[in-house]
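HUMAN: Forgive my ignorance: could you write out one protein's sequence and backbone structure tokens?

ASSISTANT:
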Amino acid sequence: MNKYEIIDHTADVGIKVKADSPTELFSRSAHAMFDIIGELGNVEPKKAFKISAEAASIEELLVEWLRELLYLYETKRVLFKRFVVEQIAPLTKKGVKGYRLKAEAFGERLNLARHEIKTEVKAVTYHQLSVAKKGNTWTAQVILDV
């Protein structure tokens, strides 16, 4: 199974991701975004970042996850290569509906002598956003503003 495919979209880049579980779906979505950002062949997964997020829906959780990774890339200049989504679960707060995520992302500080940047991703959007399960396969579609 291909990890992701690029979707034609005017002035932006879309990705469609398939996986066997929601955790794998989120991991593959992050990998797809960073594969669009840079050439990952020379990136060493040296440094780990713990990430947690909460959102009202699984679709919004995917956007929050990718936005947090993009924020770390922009502010810490870390190019990520490996993603371990440990948990995606319903929120257990009384009276609050939604989902939470716990994950780790592994990468290293951007070094333009070793790393090639392919595309600057400006934002993760809600445009045409979807997360769905059909049979045993989870799919997600995300549009990235470039």
Notes: Helices lie at 22-37, 58-76. Strands lie at 4-7, 12-19, 47-55, 78-90, 99-109, 123-124, 130-134, 137-145. Residues 4-145 form a domain with the Archease, Possible Chaperone; Chain: A; domain 1 fold (CATH 3.55.10.10).
